[in-house]
Amino acid sequence: MKQLAAWRGDTLLLGKVWLAESATERMQGLLGRPPLAADEGMLIQPCRLIHTVGMAYPLDLAFVDKQGRVRKLVSHLRPARMAGCLSATATLEMAPGTIARLGLVAGEQLHWRPA
Question: Structure pTM?
Fold first, then answer.
């Protein structure tokens, strides 16, 4: 699985973001993995809908379009729940509290660089 870093302009947001692109990687996602650390995330693409069935911990989510613009944010999605955004092409999964800590807002632009 490729590793990226998430940026907002010249500001590093998350230094370790795993990219899940293949069908197998997208289906597996974070299932069976330990909770994400504050500087970690998983970018799933393509992805418009996330479920947390089988997860043991909550997630913060940023649904982004193909330009990296944040279309929707979901904080603290608990296990056994679903969230989605039809205008998104990818979903960034993060540790709970990351949206607030980073001050993420809908409409802002994110971009990815190799880690």
Answer: 0.96
